[in-house]
DNA sequence: GTAACGAACTAACGCTAGTTAGGAAAATAA
DNA sequence: TTATTTTCCTAACTAGCGTTAGTTCGTTAC
C-alpha cells in the first residue's frame, strides 16, 4: 500500500531544500546532497525545477508574500499605536513560526539571490519595514512612544524577533501569539517592574 | 617609494577575507576570489595560512575572546541589575562596532567551523550568554525585573543587537555607547512614554 | 659572495559543483 | 491495448573548488 504520499515532487524538493538551506546554508548545500535526502539522483531534480536558485527564489518570495498578506489582514485602522505595534509583531511572529525552516532561510539566505531578484527582494523588505516605522512615527506624534530613531528601533525589534526560528520549538509551552505578546510587551513596556 | 605598507601579509589576508566572508558568506567565497582582491595567486595564500578554515577560526575565536575580555573588564560587582545589564550590553555593542565585518562573520558564519572547533565555539557562546541570563535572574530575584523566561529574553536582546553590524555606519551620529544605551533603555524601560 | 629564507609564481592534482542530453521505466489517458 | 506524459536514470560536460609540489627570485645574514 503506497497511498498517495507523493503529493507533489516539486513541493517535496522545496521542503527538503528548505531544511538543508537552513542547516547548512544555501552555498554549502549541493544538489547531490538534496537529491540524496530525497532518494533520487541529482540530475532528476531538474525534471521538476529549473535551477538551484529557483528553489531559493521560491522560498524567499513565498515568505515575503506571506508576511505582507498576514500584515494586511490585521485590521489596525482605528487602533492606538501601541496596539497596532503589538498586532503587527504578532502577525509577523505568526508567519515566522508557521514554518521555521523557511523563515530562517528567508532571514539569512536572501543574499544569494542574483539580480534582478535580489533588488526586488530588498525593495519588498524595505516596504515591509516601512509599515512598522510608520507605526512608531505615528505613535510618537500621538505622544505614546518615545522619540527614538524609528528605523533603528524597528530594525532592532525585527532582528530580535527574526532570530526566533533558530530556537523556537513548535511543541514548546508558548504559542506564537504568546511569544509575540511577550516580546512586544518587553519592547513596549520594558523589562523593568514599575 | 613603496614605504612599509606590507605590515603583515597574514593580517592583510585575514582582513580581506573578513570583508568577503561578510559580503558573500564563507562558503561562497573562494580562495581565488580572496587572492585576487589582494593581488596574488591563490596558491600564494598558503605561504601565510594553513587552510581556508583557519581564517574563519581566527576570526571567530578572536571575536569570542574580545567579547569575554570586554565583559570581564566591566566592574559590575556592586551594581543593581539594571545597571549591570546596561553595562554588559554597552560592552557587547562596543566590541560589535569596533570591527563590524568581523562581527558579522562571528554572528553568522560560525556554523561552517568543523569539529572540534564548532563545539568549542558553541560552548563559549553558551557561557557568554549565561552571564547575561544570570543578570536577569538576579534582577528578578531583587524585584527589579519582571518574571520572564530569562534565556528567551537574553536571546532576543542579543539578537536585536547582533544584527547591528549589518547597518551600523562608523561615521553615524551615534557612538557605540549611545546606541547601546538606546537599545538597553528600550529593553529596560520600554518604548512607551510613562 | 654565498648561503638561507620568505614570498611569490606556474602547473597540476583530485574532487565536487551545477547542469544537460538522451533514453528507460512507470504512471496516466485514450 | 496503445499512446502519451511524467519521472527518474546513466553518463557526461564544463567550470570551479581547496590544496600541494616544485621552482624562481629578491632580500637578508653571515
Describe the structure.
The structure is a homodimer of 194-residue chains. The relative contact order of chain A is 0.12. Chain A is 64% helix and 0% strand. The model of chain A is unreliable at 1-6 (pLDDT under 50). The first copy, chain A, has 8 helices and no strands. Chain A starts with 8 loop residues before the first helix and ends in a 5-residue tail after the last helix. By secondary structure, chain A is mainly alpha-helical. The structure holds a DNA duplex (30 and 30 nucleotides).
**Residue share in β-strands of chain A:** under 5%
Please tally the β strands of chain A and state the result: 0
Low-confidence stretches of chain A: 1-6
Which class of secondary structure composition applies to the elements of chain A? mainly alpha
Which H/E pattern describes the elements of chain A?
Answer: HHHHHHHH
Sum up the overall morphology of chain A in one term. Answer: elongated
Oligomer: homodimer
Biggest interface, which chains? A-B, 40 and 41 residues
Main sheet makeup of chain A: none
The rounded Rg of chain A comes to: 19 Å
What's the end-to-end separation of chain A, in Å?
63 Å
Helicity level of chain A: 55-70%
The number of helical segments of chain A is: 8
Average pLDDT of chain A, rounded to a whole number, is 89
